[in-house]
Specification:
- With 276 residues, the chain is an alpha/beta fold.
- The protein has a single domain, classed as TIM Barrel, CATH 3.20.20.
- The protein is 44% helix and 16% strand.
- The chain contains ten helices and ten strands.
- The chain has an eight-stranded parallel β-sheet with strand order 8-7-6-5-4-3-10-9.
- Helix 2 runs parallel beside helix 3.
- It is globular, with a radius of gyration of 17 Å.
- The chain starts with a strand and ends with a helix.
- Bound molecules: ligand 7PJ.
- Pathway: Cofactor biosynthesis; tetrahydrofolate biosynthesis; 7,8-dihydrofolate from 2-amino-4-hydroxy-6-hydroxymethyl-7,8-dihydropteridine diphosphate and 4-aminobenzoate: step 1/2.
- Its EC number is 2.5.1.15.
- GO terms for molecular function: dihydropteroate synthase activity; metal ion binding.
Amino acid sequence: MEMTFAGRTLDMSRCHVMGILNVTPDSFSDGGRFNQLDAALLRARQLVADGAAFIDVGGESTRPGAATVTVQEELDRVCPVVEAISQELDVVVSVDTSTPEVMTQSAALGAGLINDVRALQRDGALDAAASSGIPVCIMHIQGEPQTMQERPEYRNVLREVGEFLSERVRAAQGAGVAADNIILDPGFGFGKNLEHNLRLLASLEQLQALGHPLLVGMSRKSMLGEIVGRDVNERLPASLAAATISALKGAGIVRVHDVRETVDAVSVAMAVKEAG
Ligand code: 7PJ
């Protein structure tokens, strides 16, 4: 169950914490590139100090209604941050992108994981991921980010997510991605209502049967807001519960905003798992 990310080997039978680092510009800030890079590095240092094993750098918002970004804009946002973190910090840099050019350049600058919420479905993404030689996370999504939450429908969400992921694994392997370089993600909130999300979380063990480590992301998501009736900034306890459950059910990576708190929660889950 070991996996190597740009020279760093991790035991994926344990649960690791991935900190989220958004490098989408704040429309209310007039900070230039230098300030943005500086701010990203400060945040990255804190995430590592807090215990993150991965930092997920993303330059494109996938929120429904978010503005689209050009390839050049995404490269300009993501690449300097990937390069700086890779050089300075002892952490795996993950790049949250669906864009082949960003995959290729990030891997060359030291990224250790490609995290694609579109499951390598964009033209050129399969080949870019394969040529990069680094591991990839393939996530399930129903539809496109802009419209995915309008009316998600499944006959059997667990089976359909499993079939989609299996098909994308075959496609990735067909393009030359090594089987032991593939991580899978059910894609919580990506074209799913609360009932779909809960069914997937309740059955996470069954997705392990696909034979790849699992990454899960539920931090602060609206599925948790629906359960506890709280705004996005008050969802830390709910997010910790979701991370704990995921770790107990065998997730190899949890993708979160609140790294320090999640590391503690996951440590308790791991200690219990090892005692069982
Ligand atoms: C996920 C992601 C997720 C993976 C986002 C948000 C939305 N990548 N990128 N899994 N979510 N692999 O954080 O609210 O669930 S962006």
